[in-house]
Amino acid sequence: MGTFGETIEHEMETILSHLLLQIIFILFICKLIVMAIAPLKQPPVVGEIIAGLLMGPTVMGQSENFKHFMFPDSNKAVLKAMADIGIVFFMFILGLEFRPADMLATIKKTWHIGLCGIALPFGLGCSISNWLYSIYMEDTEVSRTSFLLFVSSTMSFTAFPVLARILLANNALTAQIGQVAMGVASIDDILAWTVLAMSTAYHIGGSLGAGLLAVFIAAVWIAIMSMALQPGLRFAKTRVNSSTFALIVFACMCVSALVTQLLGLHAFFGAFVFGICVPKEDEIFIEHFMEQIEVVTVNFFVPLFFCNTGLRTDLTTMASAGGPVITVLILSIVGKMIPPIVIGKLTGFTWAFSFQLAALMSARGLIALIALDVALEVGAFTTEIFGIFVIMALVTTMLAGPLFAMSYDPKVDPPADAVKKHGTPEAAVPINAETPMQAERNIRRHSVGDTHLDPEFSLLRVQLNKKQDTNYLMLKNLVTEMGTMHERWSIALKSAEVVEGELASLRSARELASSKADTVVPVKKTGKSAKSASKKSKKSTRSRQSTKTDDIELGLIKSKSTPKEIP
Asked: The domain containing residue 543 runs over which residues?
Protein backbone atom coordinates (compact mmCIF):
# COMPACT_ATOMS: atom_id res chain seq x y z
CA MET A 1 0.00 0.00 0.00
CA GLY A 2 2.87 2.29 0.87
CA THR A 3 4.49 1.64 -2.48
CA PHE A 4 1.24 2.47 -4.33
CA GLY A 5 0.83 5.72 -2.38
CA GLU A 6 4.40 6.72 -3.09
CA THR A 7 3.84 6.06 -6.80
CA ILE A 8 0.79 8.34 -6.86
CA GLU A 9 2.64 11.05 -4.96
CA HIS A 10 5.58 10.85 -7.37
CA GLU A 11 3.36 10.95 -10.45
CA MET A 12 1.43 13.95 -9.16
CA GLU A 13 4.69 15.87 -9.10
CA THR A 14 5.19 15.37 -12.85
CA ILE A 15 4.13 18.13 -15.24
CA LEU A 16 1.81 15.91 -17.28
CA SER A 17 -0.15 14.56 -14.32
CA HIS A 18 -0.57 18.02 -12.85
CA LEU A 19 -1.63 19.45 -16.21
CA LEU A 20 -4.28 16.75 -16.67
CA LEU A 21 -5.61 17.44 -13.16
CA GLN A 22 -5.78 21.17 -13.95
CA ILE A 23 -7.65 20.56 -17.21
CA ILE A 24 -10.23 18.33 -15.50
CA PHE A 25 -10.79 20.93 -12.76
CA ILE A 26 -11.01 23.87 -15.20
CA LEU A 27 -13.51 22.16 -17.53
CA PHE A 28 -15.66 21.05 -14.59
CA ILE A 29 -15.81 24.52 -12.98
CA CYS A 30 -16.48 26.28 -16.29
CA LYS A 31 -19.31 23.92 -17.19
CA LEU A 32 -20.80 24.25 -13.71
CA ILE A 33 -20.86 28.07 -13.85
CA VAL A 34 -22.19 28.12 -17.42
CA MET A 35 -25.09 25.86 -16.36
CA ALA A 36 -25.74 28.02 -13.29
CA ILE A 37 -26.13 31.26 -15.27
CA ALA A 38 -28.08 29.67 -18.15
CA PRO A 39 -31.50 30.68 -16.65
CA LEU A 40 -30.29 34.32 -16.74
CA LYS A 41 -30.07 34.14 -20.56
CA GLN A 42 -26.35 34.87 -20.50
CA PRO A 43 -23.98 33.53 -23.20
CA PRO A 44 -21.52 30.80 -22.09
CA VAL A 45 -18.58 33.20 -22.40
CA VAL A 46 -19.89 35.14 -19.37
CA GLY A 47 -19.91 31.98 -17.26
CA GLU A 48 -16.42 31.05 -18.43
CA ILE A 49 -15.07 34.53 -17.54
CA ILE A 50 -16.66 34.27 -14.08
CA ALA A 51 -15.24 30.76 -13.65
CA GLY A 52 -11.76 32.01 -14.53
CA LEU A 53 -12.04 34.81 -11.95
CA LEU A 54 -13.24 32.33 -9.30
CA MET A 55 -10.26 30.01 -9.90
CA GLY A 56 -7.81 32.92 -9.65
CA PRO A 57 -6.55 34.85 -6.63
CA THR A 58 -9.89 36.70 -6.39
CA VAL A 59 -11.65 33.73 -4.69
CA MET A 60 -10.07 30.26 -4.66
CA GLY A 61 -6.53 31.57 -4.95
CA GLN A 62 -6.92 33.24 -1.55
CA SER A 63 -6.08 29.83 -0.10
CA GLU A 64 -2.34 29.24 -0.29
CA ASN A 65 -2.81 25.47 -0.08
CA PHE A 66 -5.19 25.48 -3.04
CA LYS A 67 -2.92 27.76 -5.07
CA HIS A 68 0.19 25.66 -4.53
CA PHE A 69 -1.62 22.37 -5.13
CA MET A 70 -3.82 23.20 -8.13
CA PHE A 71 -1.96 26.04 -9.86
CA PRO A 72 1.68 26.02 -8.79
CA ASP A 73 4.04 28.51 -10.40
CA SER A 74 6.04 25.66 -11.97
CA ASN A 75 3.06 24.63 -14.13
CA LYS A 76 1.62 28.02 -15.12
CA ALA A 77 3.85 28.34 -18.19
CA VAL A 78 2.61 25.02 -19.60
CA LEU A 79 -1.04 25.95 -18.98
CA LYS A 80 -0.53 29.33 -20.64
CA ALA A 81 1.14 27.72 -23.66
CA MET A 82 -1.86 25.39 -24.13
CA ALA A 83 -4.27 28.33 -23.77
CA ASP A 84 -2.32 30.33 -26.35
CA ILE A 85 -2.37 27.40 -28.81
CA GLY A 86 -6.13 27.27 -28.38
CA ILE A 87 -6.47 31.00 -29.12
CA VAL A 88 -4.27 30.59 -32.20
CA PHE A 89 -6.77 28.03 -33.50
CA PHE A 90 -9.68 30.24 -32.44
CA MET A 91 -8.29 33.22 -34.35
CA PHE A 92 -7.66 30.97 -37.35
CA ILE A 93 -11.33 29.88 -37.29
CA LEU A 94 -12.39 33.52 -36.95
CA GLY A 95 -10.31 34.36 -40.02
CA LEU A 96 -11.92 31.53 -41.97
CA GLU A 97 -15.31 33.07 -41.19
CA PHE A 98 -14.43 36.26 -43.06
CA ARG A 99 -15.23 36.22 -46.79
CA PRO A 100 -13.55 39.16 -48.57
CA ALA A 101 -16.32 39.29 -51.19
CA ASP A 102 -19.02 39.36 -48.50
CA MET A 103 -17.02 41.96 -46.56
CA LEU A 104 -16.99 44.31 -49.55
CA ALA A 105 -20.75 43.98 -49.95
CA THR A 106 -21.25 44.59 -46.21
CA ILE A 107 -18.92 47.60 -46.15
CA LYS A 108 -20.98 49.30 -48.88
CA LYS A 109 -24.13 49.01 -46.75
CA THR A 110 -22.88 49.58 -43.19
CA TRP A 111 -19.50 51.32 -43.50
CA HIS A 112 -20.75 54.54 -41.87
CA ILE A 113 -22.06 52.73 -38.78
CA GLY A 114 -18.95 50.55 -38.52
CA LEU A 115 -16.55 53.46 -38.93
CA CYS A 116 -18.31 55.61 -36.34
CA GLY A 117 -18.65 52.57 -34.09
CA ILE A 118 -14.86 52.36 -33.79
CA ALA A 119 -14.00 56.09 -34.07
CA LEU A 120 -15.95 57.21 -30.97
CA PRO A 121 -14.70 54.51 -28.53
CA PHE A 122 -11.18 55.00 -29.87
CA GLY A 123 -11.43 58.73 -29.21
CA LEU A 124 -12.85 58.18 -25.71
CA GLY A 125 -10.00 55.77 -25.02
CA CYS A 126 -7.52 58.45 -26.01
CA SER A 127 -9.25 60.94 -23.69
CA ILE A 128 -8.90 58.79 -20.54
CA SER A 129 -5.53 57.19 -21.33
CA ASN A 130 -3.51 60.10 -19.88
CA TRP A 131 -5.55 60.02 -16.66
CA LEU A 132 -5.11 56.24 -16.27
CA TYR A 133 -1.42 56.55 -17.14
CA SER A 134 -0.84 59.12 -14.41
CA ILE A 135 -2.48 56.81 -11.83
CA TYR A 136 -1.04 53.40 -12.73
CA MET A 137 1.79 53.75 -15.26
CA GLU A 138 3.99 56.66 -14.11
CA ASP A 139 6.57 54.34 -12.56
CA THR A 140 6.80 52.06 -15.61
CA GLU A 141 8.87 52.33 -18.77
CA VAL A 142 5.79 52.17 -21.04
CA SER A 143 5.45 55.25 -23.23
CA ARG A 144 2.27 57.30 -23.15
CA THR A 145 1.72 56.81 -26.89
CA SER A 146 1.97 53.04 -26.64
CA PHE A 147 -0.40 52.97 -23.65
CA LEU A 148 -2.85 55.27 -25.46
CA LEU A 149 -2.96 52.97 -28.51
CA PHE A 150 -3.59 49.84 -26.44
CA VAL A 151 -6.33 51.46 -24.31
CA SER A 152 -8.10 52.90 -27.35
CA SER A 153 -7.96 49.70 -29.42
CA THR A 154 -9.14 47.57 -26.46
CA MET A 155 -12.23 49.77 -26.04
CA SER A 156 -13.06 49.50 -29.77
CA PHE A 157 -13.64 45.74 -30.05
CA THR A 158 -16.96 43.95 -30.51
CA ALA A 159 -17.08 40.24 -29.73
CA PHE A 160 -18.14 38.65 -33.02
CA PRO A 161 -18.81 35.14 -31.55
CA VAL A 162 -20.69 36.53 -28.52
CA LEU A 163 -22.84 38.67 -30.80
CA ALA A 164 -23.70 35.61 -32.89
CA ARG A 165 -24.54 33.66 -29.71
CA ILE A 166 -26.97 36.37 -28.54
CA LEU A 167 -28.66 36.50 -31.95
CA LEU A 168 -28.92 32.71 -32.01
CA ALA A 169 -30.47 32.60 -28.53
CA ASN A 170 -33.16 35.07 -29.68
CA ASN A 171 -33.64 33.36 -33.07
CA ALA A 172 -32.67 36.60 -34.81
CA LEU A 173 -29.58 35.53 -36.74
CA THR A 174 -31.44 35.65 -40.07
CA ALA A 175 -33.46 38.77 -39.26
CA GLN A 176 -32.46 42.17 -40.60
CA ILE A 177 -30.89 43.12 -37.27
CA GLY A 178 -28.76 39.97 -37.37
CA GLN A 179 -27.42 40.64 -40.85
CA VAL A 180 -26.64 44.31 -40.13
CA ALA A 181 -25.07 43.57 -36.73
CA MET A 182 -22.79 40.85 -38.11
CA GLY A 183 -21.66 43.18 -40.87
CA VAL A 184 -20.93 46.10 -38.54
CA ALA A 185 -19.11 43.82 -36.07
CA SER A 186 -16.95 42.46 -38.90
CA ILE A 187 -15.89 45.98 -39.89
CA ASP A 188 -15.20 46.98 -36.26
CA ASP A 189 -13.09 43.90 -35.54
CA ILE A 190 -11.01 44.19 -38.72
CA LEU A 191 -10.18 47.83 -37.94
CA ALA A 192 -9.57 47.15 -34.23
CA TRP A 193 -7.22 44.23 -34.94
CA THR A 194 -5.31 46.43 -37.38
CA VAL A 195 -4.88 49.15 -34.75
CA LEU A 196 -3.88 46.59 -32.11
CA ALA A 197 -1.27 45.11 -34.46
CA MET A 198 0.17 48.58 -35.06
CA SER A 199 0.13 49.25 -31.30
CA THR A 200 2.02 46.03 -30.62
CA ALA A 201 4.57 46.75 -33.33
CA TYR A 202 5.09 50.29 -32.02
CA HIS A 203 5.50 49.09 -28.42
CA ILE A 204 7.93 46.29 -29.31
CA GLY A 205 9.95 48.47 -31.68
CA GLY A 206 10.25 51.32 -29.21
CA SER A 207 9.83 53.95 -31.90
CA LEU A 208 7.45 54.93 -34.65
CA GLY A 209 9.93 53.92 -37.36
CA ALA A 210 10.50 50.46 -35.91
CA GLY A 211 6.77 49.94 -35.52
CA LEU A 212 6.04 50.99 -39.08
CA LEU A 213 8.82 48.70 -40.33
CA ALA A 214 7.28 45.72 -38.53
CA VAL A 215 3.86 46.59 -39.96
CA PHE A 216 5.38 46.93 -43.45
CA ILE A 217 7.02 43.49 -43.19
CA ALA A 218 3.73 42.05 -41.99
CA ALA A 219 1.96 43.64 -44.98
CA VAL A 220 4.54 42.05 -47.31
CA TRP A 221 3.90 38.69 -45.68
CA ILE A 222 0.15 39.12 -46.17
CA ALA A 223 0.76 39.94 -49.84
CA ILE A 224 2.90 36.80 -50.20
CA MET A 225 0.15 34.69 -48.67
CA SER A 226 -2.46 36.22 -50.97
CA MET A 227 -0.48 35.97 -54.21
CA ALA A 228 1.64 32.83 -53.71
CA LEU A 229 0.36 30.76 -50.82
CA GLN A 230 -3.30 31.01 -51.80
CA PRO A 231 -2.76 29.66 -55.37
CA GLY A 232 -0.49 26.98 -53.91
CA LEU A 233 -3.26 25.82 -51.59
CA ARG A 234 -5.71 25.76 -54.51
CA PHE A 235 -3.28 23.55 -56.44
CA ALA A 236 -2.70 21.25 -53.45
CA LYS A 237 -6.46 20.89 -52.91
CA THR A 238 -6.81 19.25 -56.34
CA ARG A 239 -3.78 16.95 -55.94
CA VAL A 240 -4.04 15.48 -52.43
CA ASN A 241 -6.77 13.96 -50.29
CA SER A 242 -8.64 15.87 -47.59
CA SER A 243 -6.54 14.70 -44.63
CA THR A 244 -3.27 15.63 -46.34
CA PHE A 245 -4.68 19.02 -47.34
CA ALA A 246 -5.77 19.66 -43.73
CA LEU A 247 -2.21 18.87 -42.59
CA ILE A 248 -0.84 21.36 -45.14
CA VAL A 249 -3.28 24.04 -43.94
CA PHE A 250 -2.29 23.52 -40.28
CA ALA A 251 1.41 23.69 -41.16
CA CYS A 252 0.92 26.93 -43.10
CA MET A 253 -1.13 28.37 -40.22
CA CYS A 254 1.75 27.67 -37.81
CA VAL A 255 4.24 29.25 -40.23
CA SER A 256 2.12 32.40 -40.50
CA ALA A 257 1.69 32.56 -36.71
CA LEU A 258 5.44 32.11 -36.22
CA VAL A 259 6.28 34.90 -38.69
CA THR A 260 4.06 37.44 -36.92
CA GLN A 261 5.31 36.26 -33.52
CA LEU A 262 8.91 36.86 -34.60
CA LEU A 263 7.92 40.31 -35.90
CA GLY A 264 6.55 41.17 -32.46
CA LEU A 265 2.92 41.24 -33.65
CA HIS A 266 1.92 38.07 -31.71
CA ALA A 267 1.03 34.71 -33.21
CA PHE A 268 -2.71 35.48 -32.96
CA PHE A 269 -2.47 37.98 -35.82
CA GLY A 270 -0.70 35.54 -38.14
CA ALA A 271 -3.31 32.83 -37.57
CA PHE A 272 -6.15 35.31 -38.11
CA VAL A 273 -4.74 36.72 -41.36
CA PHE A 274 -3.94 33.26 -42.71
CA GLY A 275 -7.54 32.21 -42.02
CA ILE A 276 -8.73 35.12 -44.17
CA CYS A 277 -6.31 34.16 -47.00
CA VAL A 278 -7.31 30.48 -47.17
CA PRO A 279 -9.16 29.87 -50.48
CA LYS A 280 -12.83 29.20 -49.88
CA GLU A 281 -14.09 28.02 -53.27
CA ASP A 282 -14.93 24.56 -51.89
CA GLU A 283 -17.49 25.90 -49.42
CA ILE A 284 -18.65 22.51 -48.14
CA PHE A 285 -15.13 21.28 -47.40
CA ILE A 286 -14.14 24.53 -45.64
CA GLU A 287 -17.22 24.45 -43.43
CA HIS A 288 -16.79 20.76 -42.63
CA PHE A 289 -13.12 21.44 -41.84
CA MET A 290 -14.02 24.36 -39.54
CA GLU A 291 -16.68 22.45 -37.67
CA GLN A 292 -14.24 19.64 -36.87
CA ILE A 293 -11.71 21.93 -35.16
CA GLU A 294 -14.20 24.46 -33.79
CA VAL A 295 -15.89 22.08 -31.34
CA VAL A 296 -12.57 21.09 -29.75
CA THR A 297 -11.26 24.67 -29.71
CA VAL A 298 -14.36 26.28 -28.16
CA ASN A 299 -15.12 23.55 -25.63
CA PHE A 300 -11.59 22.48 -24.63
CA PHE A 301 -8.99 25.19 -25.29
CA VAL A 302 -11.00 28.38 -24.71
CA PRO A 303 -11.86 27.53 -21.05
CA LEU A 304 -8.11 27.13 -20.44
CA PHE A 305 -7.62 30.67 -21.73
CA PHE A 306 -10.31 32.07 -19.41
CA CYS A 307 -8.69 30.30 -16.47
CA ASN A 308 -5.30 31.72 -17.42
CA THR A 309 -6.90 35.19 -17.55
CA GLY A 310 -8.47 34.71 -14.12
CA LEU A 311 -5.19 33.56 -12.60
CA ARG A 312 -3.67 36.95 -13.51
CA THR A 313 -6.63 39.04 -12.23
CA ASP A 314 -6.96 39.85 -8.53
CA LEU A 315 -10.08 41.92 -7.95
CA THR A 316 -9.43 42.10 -4.19
CA THR A 317 -6.58 44.56 -4.79
CA MET A 318 -8.86 46.96 -6.70
CA ALA A 319 -10.88 48.29 -3.78
CA SER A 320 -9.43 51.75 -4.38
CA ALA A 321 -9.97 51.57 -8.16
CA GLY A 322 -13.69 52.29 -8.05
CA GLY A 323 -13.38 55.61 -9.88
CA PRO A 324 -11.33 54.28 -12.83
CA VAL A 325 -13.51 51.16 -13.12
CA ILE A 326 -16.76 53.14 -13.27
CA THR A 327 -15.30 55.70 -15.67
CA VAL A 328 -13.95 53.08 -18.06
CA LEU A 329 -17.23 51.17 -17.87
CA ILE A 330 -19.41 54.20 -18.66
CA LEU A 331 -17.23 55.39 -21.51
CA SER A 332 -16.98 51.91 -23.03
CA ILE A 333 -20.79 51.57 -23.03
CA VAL A 334 -21.40 55.08 -24.36
CA GLY A 335 -18.69 54.77 -26.99
CA LYS A 336 -20.19 51.60 -28.51
CA MET A 337 -23.91 52.44 -28.13
CA ILE A 338 -24.14 56.08 -29.25
CA PRO A 339 -22.89 55.61 -32.86
CA PRO A 340 -25.35 52.84 -33.82
CA ILE A 341 -28.27 54.74 -32.27
CA VAL A 342 -27.51 58.11 -33.88
CA ILE A 343 -26.10 56.96 -37.23
CA GLY A 344 -28.68 54.19 -37.50
CA LYS A 345 -31.53 56.65 -37.05
CA LEU A 346 -29.99 59.09 -39.55
CA THR A 347 -29.69 56.35 -42.16
CA GLY A 348 -33.37 55.39 -41.93
CA PHE A 349 -33.59 52.73 -39.21
CA THR A 350 -36.16 52.99 -36.44
CA TRP A 351 -35.22 53.92 -32.87
CA ALA A 352 -35.94 50.36 -31.71
CA PHE A 353 -33.76 48.84 -34.44
CA SER A 354 -30.92 51.28 -33.69
CA PHE A 355 -31.09 50.47 -29.97
CA GLN A 356 -30.95 46.74 -30.70
CA LEU A 357 -27.87 47.27 -32.84
CA ALA A 358 -26.27 49.39 -30.08
CA ALA A 359 -26.91 46.69 -27.46
CA LEU A 360 -25.21 44.08 -29.62
CA MET A 361 -22.20 46.29 -30.40
CA SER A 362 -21.46 46.80 -26.70
CA ALA A 363 -20.51 43.14 -26.12
CA ARG A 364 -16.72 42.63 -25.81
CA GLY A 365 -16.37 39.05 -24.57
CA LEU A 366 -13.49 36.83 -25.62
CA ILE A 367 -12.13 39.15 -28.32
CA ALA A 368 -11.44 41.95 -25.82
CA LEU A 369 -9.80 39.49 -23.43
CA ILE A 370 -7.49 38.32 -26.20
CA ALA A 371 -6.49 41.93 -26.87
CA LEU A 372 -5.93 42.45 -23.12
CA ASP A 373 -3.79 39.32 -22.98
CA VAL A 374 -1.62 40.71 -25.80
CA ALA A 375 -1.25 44.05 -23.98
CA LEU A 376 -0.32 42.36 -20.69
CA GLU A 377 2.11 39.96 -22.33
CA VAL A 378 4.07 42.67 -24.16
CA GLY A 379 4.19 44.76 -20.98
CA ALA A 380 1.93 47.62 -22.09
CA PHE A 381 -0.53 47.02 -19.19
CA THR A 382 0.01 46.39 -15.51
CA THR A 383 -2.12 43.86 -13.64
CA GLU A 384 -4.26 46.71 -12.24
CA ILE A 385 -5.09 48.11 -15.69
CA PHE A 386 -5.62 44.53 -16.90
CA GLY A 387 -8.14 43.92 -14.10
CA ILE A 388 -10.05 47.16 -14.85
CA PHE A 389 -10.57 46.21 -18.47
CA VAL A 390 -11.45 42.59 -17.60
CA ILE A 391 -14.32 43.99 -15.50
CA MET A 392 -15.30 46.21 -18.44
CA ALA A 393 -15.37 43.21 -20.82
CA LEU A 394 -17.41 41.13 -18.36
CA VAL A 395 -20.04 43.79 -17.53
CA THR A 396 -20.59 44.96 -21.12
CA THR A 397 -20.99 41.36 -22.29
CA MET A 398 -23.49 40.66 -19.49
CA LEU A 399 -25.57 43.71 -20.43
CA ALA A 400 -25.70 43.01 -24.17
CA GLY A 401 -27.92 39.91 -24.03
CA PRO A 402 -30.71 41.23 -21.74
CA LEU A 403 -30.78 44.64 -23.48
CA PHE A 404 -31.23 43.03 -26.88
CA ALA A 405 -33.83 40.50 -25.67
CA MET A 406 -35.80 43.32 -24.04
CA SER A 407 -35.91 45.43 -27.22
CA TYR A 408 -36.16 42.81 -30.00
CA ASP A 409 -39.63 42.02 -31.35
CA PRO A 410 -39.75 39.13 -33.86
CA LYS A 411 -43.13 40.34 -35.15
CA VAL A 412 -41.59 43.63 -36.29
CA ASP A 413 -38.32 42.15 -37.59
CA PRO A 414 -39.04 38.45 -38.28
CA PRO A 415 -36.28 35.98 -39.15
CA ALA A 416 -35.83 35.31 -42.86
CA ASP A 417 -36.92 31.67 -42.44
CA ALA A 418 -40.09 32.49 -40.45
CA VAL A 419 -43.31 31.01 -41.75
CA LYS A 420 -46.14 33.41 -42.60
CA LYS A 421 -49.68 32.36 -41.82
CA HIS A 422 -52.59 34.69 -42.53
CA GLY A 423 -50.09 37.53 -43.02
CA THR A 424 -48.51 37.11 -39.56
CA PRO A 425 -44.98 35.71 -39.04
CA GLU A 426 -45.06 32.68 -36.80
CA ALA A 427 -42.20 30.96 -34.99
CA ALA A 428 -39.19 30.43 -37.18
CA VAL A 429 -37.71 27.06 -37.92
CA PRO A 430 -34.91 26.49 -35.37
CA ILE A 431 -31.33 26.61 -36.59
CA ASN A 432 -29.46 23.46 -35.63
CA ALA A 433 -25.89 24.23 -34.52
CA GLU A 434 -23.54 23.54 -31.62
CA THR A 435 -21.73 26.90 -31.74
CA PRO A 436 -22.76 30.40 -32.86
CA MET A 437 -20.22 30.46 -35.69
CA GLN A 438 -21.54 27.11 -36.92
CA ALA A 439 -25.07 28.52 -36.82
CA GLU A 440 -23.98 31.54 -38.86
CA ARG A 441 -22.44 29.18 -41.44
CA ASN A 442 -25.70 27.22 -41.63
CA ILE A 443 -27.56 30.45 -42.30
CA ARG A 444 -25.11 31.51 -44.99
CA ARG A 445 -25.27 28.04 -46.55
CA HIS A 446 -29.07 27.84 -46.67
CA SER A 447 -30.14 31.50 -46.69
CA VAL A 448 -33.23 32.20 -48.76
CA GLY A 449 -33.39 35.99 -48.35
CA ASP A 450 -36.85 37.31 -47.54
CA THR A 451 -38.69 34.37 -49.12
CA HIS A 452 -41.13 32.67 -46.71
CA LEU A 453 -41.37 28.94 -47.34
CA ASP A 454 -44.09 26.39 -46.79
CA PRO A 455 -43.88 24.69 -43.37
CA GLU A 456 -43.32 21.25 -44.91
CA PHE A 457 -40.50 22.50 -47.10
CA SER A 458 -38.89 24.40 -44.19
CA LEU A 459 -38.95 21.28 -42.04
CA LEU A 460 -37.46 19.25 -44.88
CA ARG A 461 -34.70 21.86 -45.30
CA VAL A 462 -33.82 21.67 -41.59
CA GLN A 463 -33.60 17.86 -41.81
CA LEU A 464 -31.37 18.14 -44.85
CA ASN A 465 -29.11 20.63 -43.05
CA LYS A 466 -28.38 18.06 -40.36
CA LYS A 467 -27.19 15.45 -42.84
CA GLN A 468 -25.51 17.61 -45.46
CA ASP A 469 -21.92 16.76 -44.51
CA THR A 470 -22.67 13.01 -44.50
CA ASN A 471 -24.58 13.26 -47.76
CA TYR A 472 -21.69 15.14 -49.34
CA LEU A 473 -19.32 12.26 -48.61
CA MET A 474 -21.89 9.73 -49.82
CA LEU A 475 -22.36 11.74 -53.01
CA LYS A 476 -18.63 11.74 -53.67
CA ASN A 477 -18.55 7.93 -53.30
CA LEU A 478 -21.60 7.60 -55.54
CA VAL A 479 -20.02 9.74 -58.25
CA THR A 480 -16.88 7.60 -58.10
CA GLU A 481 -18.94 4.41 -58.41
CA MET A 482 -20.91 5.88 -61.32
CA GLY A 483 -17.64 6.67 -63.08
CA THR A 484 -16.48 3.09 -62.61
CA MET A 485 -19.81 1.73 -63.89
CA HIS A 486 -19.63 4.03 -66.92
CA GLU A 487 -16.18 2.68 -67.77
CA ARG A 488 -17.42 -0.91 -67.44
CA TRP A 489 -20.45 -0.11 -69.59
CA SER A 490 -18.19 1.37 -72.28
CA ILE A 491 -16.05 -1.79 -72.28
CA ALA A 492 -19.16 -3.95 -72.51
CA LEU A 493 -20.46 -1.94 -75.49
CA LYS A 494 -17.14 -2.32 -77.30
CA SER A 495 -17.22 -6.07 -76.67
CA ALA A 496 -20.79 -6.24 -77.99
CA GLU A 497 -19.73 -4.43 -81.16
CA VAL A 498 -16.93 -6.97 -81.72
CA VAL A 499 -19.31 -9.91 -81.21
CA GLU A 500 -21.85 -8.31 -83.56
CA GLY A 501 -19.16 -7.99 -86.23
CA GLU A 502 -18.23 -11.64 -85.89
CA LEU A 503 -21.88 -12.68 -86.13
CA ALA A 504 -22.27 -10.60 -89.29
CA SER A 505 -19.27 -12.34 -90.84
CA LEU A 506 -20.73 -15.75 -90.02
CA ARG A 507 -24.08 -14.80 -91.55
CA SER A 508 -22.36 -13.57 -94.69
CA ALA A 509 -20.41 -16.81 -95.01
CA ARG A 510 -23.57 -18.88 -94.50
CA GLU A 511 -25.51 -16.87 -97.11
CA LEU A 512 -22.62 -17.28 -99.58
CA ALA A 513 -22.59 -21.06 -99.10
CA SER A 514 -26.35 -21.21 -99.48
CA SER A 515 -26.30 -19.21 -102.73
CA LYS A 516 -23.64 -21.54 -104.19
CA ALA A 517 -25.75 -24.57 -103.36
CA ASP A 518 -28.77 -23.03 -105.15
CA THR A 519 -26.79 -22.43 -108.37
CA VAL A 520 -25.74 -26.10 -108.79
CA VAL A 521 -27.52 -27.72 -111.80
CA PRO A 522 -29.52 -30.74 -110.60
CA VAL A 523 -28.65 -34.10 -112.21
CA LYS A 524 -31.40 -36.54 -113.04
CA LYS A 525 -31.14 -39.58 -110.80
CA THR A 526 -33.03 -42.75 -110.28
CA GLY A 527 -33.65 -45.09 -107.41
CA LYS A 528 -31.63 -44.48 -104.26
CA SER A 529 -29.70 -41.62 -105.81
CA ALA A 530 -32.92 -39.67 -106.46
CA LYS A 531 -34.14 -40.21 -102.90
CA SER A 532 -30.78 -39.00 -101.54
CA ALA A 533 -30.89 -35.87 -103.69
CA SER A 534 -34.45 -35.17 -102.53
CA LYS A 535 -33.37 -35.43 -98.90
CA LYS A 536 -30.44 -33.04 -99.47
CA SER A 537 -32.75 -30.54 -101.16
CA LYS A 538 -35.12 -30.57 -98.19
CA LYS A 539 -32.19 -30.08 -95.79
CA SER A 540 -30.98 -27.10 -97.82
CA THR A 541 -34.44 -25.52 -97.73
CA ARG A 542 -34.68 -26.03 -93.96
CA SER A 543 -31.18 -24.53 -93.58
CA ARG A 544 -32.17 -21.36 -95.46
CA GLN A 545 -35.34 -21.05 -93.40
CA SER A 546 -33.28 -21.48 -90.19
CA THR A 547 -30.86 -18.79 -91.37
CA LYS A 548 -33.70 -16.32 -91.93
CA THR A 549 -35.17 -17.18 -88.50
CA ASP A 550 -31.79 -16.62 -86.87
CA ASP A 551 -31.44 -13.29 -88.65
CA ILE A 552 -34.86 -12.20 -87.41
CA GLU A 553 -34.06 -13.27 -83.84
CA LEU A 554 -30.68 -11.54 -83.90
CA GLY A 555 -32.34 -8.39 -85.17
CA LEU A 556 -34.85 -8.48 -82.37
CA ILE A 557 -32.15 -9.04 -79.76
CA LYS A 558 -30.08 -6.23 -81.17
CA SER A 559 -33.00 -3.81 -81.17
CA LYS A 560 -33.74 -4.67 -77.53
CA SER A 561 -30.22 -4.73 -76.08
CA THR A 562 -28.50 -1.87 -77.88
CA PRO A 563 -29.32 1.55 -76.28
CA LYS A 564 -30.26 4.33 -78.60
CA GLU A 565 -28.11 6.82 -76.67
CA ILE A 566 -25.05 6.07 -74.60
CA PRO A 567 -24.63 8.44 -71.65
From this structure: 469-515+537-567
